[in-house]
Design goal:
Elements (H helix, E strand, L loop, with lengths): L3 E4 L2 E4 L10 H5 L2 E9 L2 E2 L2 H14 L8 H14 L5 E8 L16 E8 L2 H10 L1 E7 L14 H12 L4 E5 L5 E4 L3 E5 L5 E3 L10 H12 L4 E3 L4 H5 L3 E6 L3 E8 L2 E2 L7 H15 L1
Parallel strand pairs: 7-8, 7-14, 11-12
Antiparallel strand pairs: 1-2, 1-6, 3-4, 3-5, 5-6, 8-9, 10-11, 10-13, 13-14, 14-15
The protein binds 4'-deoxy-4'-aminopyridoxal-5'-phosphate.
The site of 4'-deoxy-4'-aminopyridoxal-5'-phosphate has 13 residues, from helix 6 and strand 13.
């Protein structure tokens, strides 16, 4: 069965899903997106994703294409038409189609595009058991990384650096040597005394929804969390490192820039959180 996309009011086969060449998302990356995991047909953390979507729109003064209720109904219909059980729902809103001019157009209508692709969460769980490798890369992004903008070229280049190095993710490092986040994930370390450390969302990173849920799960397991910047050197010397994202869950990092993290296998804290997040998705 071919995949079905939602494009500005219509459900269409992916092979026929097009937007206008003067869409401002295409010409200026003038748009935002969301990504929601679907587990056993149910959207994971739907409300926080909707909150972040509306926040991103508000920060860029892009009008919402519809209210939350109808938008949720469209999400469900895309999932239904794709017969998706385990999947990733991608939602993109741009400022819409207008004659090319940098300033906001007076009369454009926001464009909404939604796609859905399958995800094998058994494979994700297996990867979490093995752990993944990461490499570091300078964070060359802008000062509004809290907005989930489709302007992702620096993230694209960073992810490719990981692929070129045979790694799963790139750990981005700011000009002062501190880890910001991954190219499409949030980054955490576990210190030798067992404290979880992750950068504050007030410090120019994306407020990850998985980061939030994993924080809650960690609190539930009586783990101590510190929100602060940590350097690349600290990360390399940490007891454990892991990343979080909607499709990866909590994923142990076992190697950074060729240095083993801990003993080079997934540590107990990250492994416990990976399992707890999987249970949360399954609940
Ligand atoms: N940081 C960045 C830069 C991302 O692109 C993502 C994934 N969209 C994340 C973190 C993780 O966010 P979430 O847990 O909401 O998927």
């Amino acid at each position: 069965m071919s995949r079905i996309a939602y494009v500005n009011g219509a459900y269409v086969p992916l092979s026929h899903a097009y937007v206008h060449i003067e869409d401002r998302g295409y010409q200026f990356a003038d748009g935002i997106y969301e990504g929601i995991a679907v587990r056993r047909g149910r959207m994971v953390d739907l409300e926080p994703h909707l909150n972040r979507l509306w926040r991103s729109l508000g920060e860029l003064s892009i009008q919402a294409p519809m209210d939350r209720g109808p938008m949720t109904a469209v999400f469900k219909e895309v999932i239904r038409q794709n017969r998706a059980r385990d999947a990733f729902l991608y939602i993109q809103v741009t400022r819409g189609v207008a004659k090319r001019d940098h300033g906001f157009p007076a009369d454009s209508w926001p464009a909404l595009v939604i796609t859905c692709r399958r995800v094998d969460f058994d494979q994700v769980a297996a990867r979490a058991k093995a752990g993944v490798k990461a490499v570091s890369h300078p964070d060359i992004r802008w000062g509004r990384c809290d907005v989930k903008s489709v302007s992702l070229l620096p993230n694209v280049l960073a992810k490719q650096a990981a692929r070129d190095a045979g790694a799963f993710e790139t750990v981005l490092v700011d000009k002062d040597g501190f880890v910001t986040e991954g190219s499409s994930t949030n980054i955490w370390m576990v210190t030798k005394d067992g404290t979880l450390v992750t950068r504050s969302t007030a410090d120019n990173i994306l407020p990850g929804i998985t980061r939030m849920t994993v924080s809650e799960l960690a609190h539930g397991h009586q783990m101590v969390i510190e929100e602060r910047a940590f350097s690349l050197e600290e990360a390399k010397d940490a007891a454990e490192l892991f990343l979080t994202s909607s499709t990866a869950g909590a994923m142990p990092i076992i190697e950074l820039d060729g240095n083993k993290i801990g003993d080079g296998t997934p540590g107990p804290v990250a492994s416990r959180l990976a399992a707890a997040y999987m249970d949360f998705m399954n609940a």
